[in-house]
Amino acid sequence: MSALIVTLAGIAVIGLVVWWFWLSKPRATRVVSQDAIEIRVKDGTYQPAAIEVAAGQALNLKFVREDATPCAEKVVFDDLGITADLPLNQAKTVAIPGLTPGEHEFTCQMGMYRGRLIARP
Ligand SMILES: [Cu+2]
């Protein structure tokens, strides 16, 4: 009987780990205006990393890079053809044109930093 309980507890822990690492997604931040939304670049993540925006509406993203490593010095919006250099500890505004509905990923040039714009129709 106790072996069964241990097995069930083990399965529950595995399930929790799977959910935490693969299934949970960071909550998106909704942009309600075209004012610049600030994105911090530090500790290997864009904060926030998921940004919900209205499709078709141009917006400004204000990147503040706090990571001195060269890894973080560029931000690339691959499918939009936009690349920007991010100076250290200074705000850099990146103008984003109106987006087609769907997800648009942005990364550092090596793809270690990852974020996405989620354009809602
Ligand atoms: Cu990188």
Key terms:
single chain; alpha/beta; Immunoglobulin-like; four-stranded mixed sheet; binds copper (II) ion; EfeO-type cupredoxin-like domain-containing protein; Cupredoxin; transmembrane helix; transmembrane; membrane
Structure commentary:
Helices cover 18% and strands 41% of the residues. It has 121 residues and is α/β, with parallel strands linked by helices. The chain has a single domain (27-120), classed as Cupredoxins -  blue copper proteins (Immunoglobulin-like). The strands form 3 sheets. A 4-stranded mixed β-sheet has the order 1-4-10-9, with no helix packed on it. Strands 3-2-5-8 form a 4-stranded mixed β-sheet, with no helix packed on it. A hairpin with a 6-residue loop joins strand 9 (102-107) and strand 10. The longest helix has 22 residues, at 2-23. It starts with a helix and ends with a strand. Residues 71, 108, 110, 112-113 line the site of copper (II) ion. InterPro entries: Cupredoxin, EfeO_Cupredoxin. Pfam families: Cupredoxin_1. The chain crosses the membrane at residues 6-23.
